[in-house]
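Lay summary. Proteins are chains of building blocks that fold into shapes, and those shapes determine what they do. In this project we predict the shape from the chain. Here is one chain we studied, written as its sequence of building blocks.
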Amino acid sequence: MSVSLLLADVVLAFMWATTQSFRMGPVHRREHPEKLEKVTKRSEFPCLDVFICTADPYKEPPIGVVNSALSVMAYDYPTEKVSVYVSDDGGSALTLFALMEAAKFASHWLPFCRKNDVMERNPHAYFASNHSRSSETQNIKMMYESMKFRIEHVVEKGEVSDEYITSDQEREAFDKWKNGFTRQNHPTIIQVLLESSKDKDITGNYLPNLIYVTREKSKTSHHYFKAGALNVLLRVSATMSNAPMVLTLDCDMYSNDPQTPLRVLCYVFDPKIRSKLAFVQFPQRFRGLNKNDIYASEFKRLFEINPLGLDGLRGPNYVGTGAFFCRRSLFGDPSTFVSPEIPELSPNHAVKEPINSLSILPLAHHVAACNYENQTNWGSKMGFRYGSLVEDYYTGYRLHCEGWRSVFCHPKRPAFYGDAPTNLLDMLNQNKRWAIGLLEVAFSKYSPVTFGIRSMGLMGLGYAHLAFWASYPIPITVYGFLPQLALLNGISIFPKISEPWFFLYSFLFVGAYVQDFLDFVLEGGTFGKWWNDQRIWNIKGLSSYLFGVTEYLLKSLGISAAGFNVTSKVVDDELSKRYDQEIFELFAGWRHAGAIFADVLVSWRWCWIVELCNGDNAASTEWTGPV
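And here is the predicted shape, written in a compact code that computers can read:
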């Protein structure tokens, strides 16, 4: 019993100590994009490449991908300088069809947004809000609803029928999905849907580039999940536009502020940090959460509280979406440039040909091949890093170790909104995948405890705290069971009220909760959300994290291989209704073990209170409460 309690206390002490790195120097920043044109002309703004990743049209509905793409295409930014690349790792003709429809709708939507100074440039979000009821707005809404119907009808049928193919060019594109084409085995397909040098909207202004990409897949090649898809986009975009700024975006995240790129330029043009600036990270924010966020899907600490603290060191960690990268940072450290295999992939290469030209497209297909990265530095010294299921955490960590820094931009108006899991199963599966990926980094040669602290000092502690999230099952299990067993056997393991140590225990117990509550509420949380966050933490500790540790051990022993399960973004009407009513789903047929263990942990707290109240007679107490 003593050894178990010691081990639990060591884990808690380690996690507490590493948490202090988030508290040493929190930074709150403010930008003034309205003053930007005093520094540089709008025509001199750097080009911007946007990477949007999707992998399954049935888990990530194509209409959501369309809304995300349209929201960034409509940025308050020179349209001829914006290129949007959509990576379809599912290799689905349904996604291509949806983006073809988006390209047509963009010629009406972008000028409408500019004319009416629309802030919510995601069409779905705009029409769901208190928008204008003018005839122009109603016409645009009808066009959007018509597009949405066609996309959803095609997805429901599972194929793009002839009635929706309107040109020989479209037919030629869909003919690439021939017999034998599967999501695990297919050639590269790159389709230029809009070209800024020739395609114009209804008002005569040029439209941004829009490019569909599905990389070559082969059952004999490792594809490295999302990190591999991002590196393919990095190379394909280098051959076609090679913008110095790159925005990575999940397909369920959309722009909520058209001035977001201008906020980024405030840091890119700052002479004090620009030479070592790797990326500007925005917090993940979610719409559709119920009042008290019963599944703690907001992740307020991970996406808002902790990054403020890390910004006082070398900057926030990369969270996989809502980050604007300086392309140069993905090619070696600030003082040492790692050259790619061909000069066309260098961040300094100037693209002089149109993206649809015969000299560009063959090269783009070549660098998207499944065996292109063999015997190269991609994934190790260049691009997004391989070696973990949490490629975002690992990439940001390696960049910080190399000497780069990042900036946390947290404007009053959220820059991006996305979808959060609205059922317990999806949330726990997502956290299990994170736990496996973090352990892969924690026990690698680049472990934050050794390599990270040597490279970054205090910053390394912050990464170590995240890397060892999955160690929480140890103290939760120990303190969830041993106090009850000790009480039943007449053993006192906590100080009695009459002993001086009681005041220290009480101070630590109350102080920890008060501090955690204040951190949560001061960043816009509520008591209800904080309470559910505590509950879900207990459940995750003995489900997601415990199963994650088990799967990591099996993978390390070569018994099984960890997979990348895409979190479903499909909204079930009945499930959504229960979620809005704050009905806690414990899986339609069975009660999750984590919920039971959470109840056990609560009973431990009652055990301690009973011991304290009974004082010296605690050893003879017969416990009749919940066990």
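What the prediction tells us: Confidence is low (pLDDT under 50) at residues 588-627.
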